[in-house]
Amino acid sequence: NKDITDSIRYAKRIQDSILPSIDRVRGYLTNSFVFFKPKDIVSGDFYWVDRKGDDIFFAAIDCTGHGVPGALMSMVGHDILSQAMKDYKFLTPARLLDILNKGLSERLNQSTDDIRLRDGMDVSMCMLNYKTMELQYAGAYNPLFIVRGKELIEYKGDTLAIGTYSDTNKEQFNNQTIQLERNDVIYLFTDGYTDQFGGPEGKKFKIYQFKSMLVNMHDIPMDEQHELLEKSIEEWRGVLQQVDDILVIGVKI
Q1: Which region holds residue 224: left if phi is over 0, alpha if psi is between -120 and 50, else beta?
Q2: Can you give the pTM of this predicted structure?
Q3: Which of 65, 115, 169, 202 is most deeply packed, by most CB within 10 A?
Q4: What is the C-alpha separation between 88 and 6, in angstroms, rounded?
């Protein structure tokens, strides 16, 4: 058990070195936070950020499973996205999801094996231009939240998971364009936060409680939002186990 745990801890160092540091994230997204809490040392959730000209791409991604299998999937996904930034001149969030969908299926040989792998990813993908104050978004199941004043605006993604590509199923993801306003706060997240069991009755945190929390805290500094998210979920969890990887990204305009 010690040997296996030591091996996984070293794998975490490799995964951490590939994920962008918070300094790099804030180099692209000046006023932001990343709340990232793996369940089992390494994580099937991962975040990704890159830049092409004036456009900043960032995403919250939830791979099937957690722990070692999820972490292996996260490395494949990260590699596909980073390579796409080099290979393609013009990209949108929807185009990136199409590339990720096809690339993941090809790399896992999902369309040719007798035993099809049922692995995939749920994704919220954004492209932000600070000059035009324009945000483009595409989602694979995962939504996008924008808090403006005391209102939470929800943009839903497509009900199409990454990893479902085949030559006969070439569905494409849809791009949504949003005109931002000063002091808008963008939130991307995976389902680990809302699915956490806890509280006085041992129930899930739930999305409605998460939404209310975001609206109530959106106007405090981003570092304090990070601390509040961590404190709230730990108090909710109590003595119960963490059930999934947790990832929440916040960006203030």
Answers
A1: alpha
A2: 0.91
A3: 65
A4: 39
Closest Cα to residue 93, out of 134, 162, 48, 139?
139
Q: Over 60: is that where the pLDDT of 111 sits?
A: no
State whether residue 163 is helix, strand or coil.
Answer: coil
Q: Evaluate if residue 127 carries a pLDDT over 60.
A: yes
Nearest to 17 by CA among 75, 104, 100: 75
SS3 label, residue 17 = helix
Three-class secondary structure assignment of 40-88: ECECCEEEEEEEECCEEEEEEEEECCCHHHHHHHHHHHHHHHHHHHHHC
C-alpha–C-alpha distance, residues 177 and 127, integer Å: 9
pLDDT of residue 18: 87
What is the spatial distance between Cα 207 and Cα 191, in angstroms, rounded to a whole number?
9
SS3 content of the chain, % helix, strand, coil (to 5): 35, 30, 35
